[in-house]
Amino acid sequence: MTAKVLLLDEAIAELEEASVWYEAQRAGLGHAFLAAVDRTIDHVSRWPFTGALVDGVDSSLEVRRMPVGSFPYYLAYTSAEQSITVLAVAHDRRRPRYWAGRGS
Fold it and tell me: Which residues pair with 7 in a beta bridge?
């Protein structure tokens, strides 16, 4: 069964910012990034527990992370019975867990 996926406003802003940056680097790269994020969202909506648990956040949230294809980004998300909430579209090497207060 596929879970419904909701992106927080902050995650949408991060997604847009990253795709614009990639598109400025090379034509079509922003679209490739968006496609990779779509595939990642599809994956977590089908298999929400395959993402690795994230240490250092409120344990009651059970935040997971899933890499975004070949890009240095990941989705930070929580899962409930029928839904997934994407807390962040975060860069792997910038500001670790800056998004940890979201969704609580």
Answer: 86
Please say whether the beta carbons of 42 and 68 come within 8 A.
no
Q: Is residue 96 within 8 Å of 17, Cβ to Cβ?
A: no
Give the start-to-end residue ranges of the domains of the chain: 4-91
21/53 Cα distance (integer angstroms): 28
pLDDT tens sequence across 13-45: 999 999 999 999 999 999 999 999 999 999 999
pTM for this predicted structure: 0.90
CATH of domain 4-91: 3.30.2310.20
Dihedral over Cα of 36, 49, 99, 70: its sign: negative
Instruction: State the DSSP string of 60-97.
Output: TT--EEEE-TTSSEEEEEEE-SSEEEEEEEEETTSSTT
